[in-house]
Amino acid sequence: MSSFKDVYDKMDWEDSKASIYAKTASDVERAIAARHRTLEDFKALISPAAAPYLEQMASISQQLTLQRFGKVIQLYIPLYLSNECNNICTYCGFSYDNKVKRKTLSAIEIMQEVQHLKQMGYEHVLLVTGEANHTVHVDYFKKALELIRPHFAHVSMEVQPLDLLDYKELVLFGLHTVLVYQETYHREAYQSHHPKGKKSNFVYRLETPDRLGQAGIHKMGLGVLIGLEDWRTDSFFTAVHLDYLEKKYWKSKYSLSFPRLRPFSGGLEPKVEMSDRELVQLICAYRLWNQEAELSISTRESEVFRNNIIKLGITSMSAGSKTNPGGYTVEQESLEQFEISDERSPKVIAEIISAQGYEPVWKDWDQHLM
Asked: Which of 132, 158, 265, 304 is deepest in the core (most CB within 10 A)?
């Protein structure tokens, strides 16, 4: 069966990068004026030539988001189940070579965390683990879903890529959404950042969304870790991937996230810096090109940035996040995956959203359609 690898193999990183950086003001103006924007238009909108047009792009992005999603911002929270990991990843605090105490939550500990998240008001939870097949495997995920699913309207998962049959089973256990970030579409850079572990298999990870689509997942999330490679080229490859998936697995919904490399235990400086202004440009470019995708921003970003991005195209935000297993109640000092920037409570974030004339929504707004 064909997969995105067939599309990927026909692409060239350097050619794509050169095409993006060659875009002119005329290309940008044409893309902004277009009624239906193409991938070539997307290149123009993320190019350096688009920087002077940011205010215009932001205005259109706001209008398009209001038309499709209304004045609502969905709130979700990550629940880290484990920091055990068999992979060596140069940018992650959970990396196998980071010699720190490991923790995987038991059933009792999971329910302690669940009770706390429910008290915070959440109905949408994102389950996160490291990639350790000997402890956080499919059977562990099934048991976790059995415990967690009755308490939340929407359950998402960000764990290691799995086989097709595994995804099909987890869907039956109540899994709605899977996030799987390619980290970078630059194959050589990917290999250098993942020298050991199952994650070093670039193609297996690349084809994960195909397996999700075949499993009939309700929604899947894409993205790259901004800072590992040229963000414009990586974002273009992400857009091509999304375009392919929307056409092939049209019954599924899609979301995009924009994680920028953050400090962690061990440290890795970004190869490529991305300014706040450039991140706004990227978010607006995605919205101008694709009006259906949900766009999400996490607590990696600063308070000021998150306050200002609410009206510009974002449809979901995390709040009050902890990135360590048991971080809410069980073991608050366990190893975190990365440092949080915005540490404000969900209540405060909800108040800020409301103050801007938007409605904070605590569960996925389209569940009644399922």
From this structure: 132
Kindly state the tokens that stand for 362.
Answer: 């605590």
Cα 58 from chain centre: 21
Under 8 Å between Cβ of 257 and 242: no
DSSP-assigned letter for residue 260: B
pLDDT in tens, 159-169: 999 999 999 99
- Alpha-carbon distance of 300 to 344, in angstroms, equals 12
Residue type for position 2: S
Q: Which amino acid is at 38?
A: T
| Residue 339: pLDDT band with limits 50, 70, 90 | low
Does the pLDDT value for residue 121 go beyond 90?
yes
Of 182, 261, 252, 254, residue with least CA distance to 223: 182
How far apart, in Å, are the Cα atoms of 25 and each of 30, 62, 82, 299? 9, 22, 48, 34
pLDDT digits (tens, 9 = 90+) for 67-109: 999 999 999 999 999 999 888 888 877 777 777 788 999 999 9
Report the SS3 class of residue 296: strand
The residue among 32, 34, 68 whose CA lies nearest residue 285 is 32
Residues 6 or more apart in contact with residue 65 via CB below 8 angstroms: 287, 291, 312, 313, 314, 315
d(CA 337, CA 345): 19
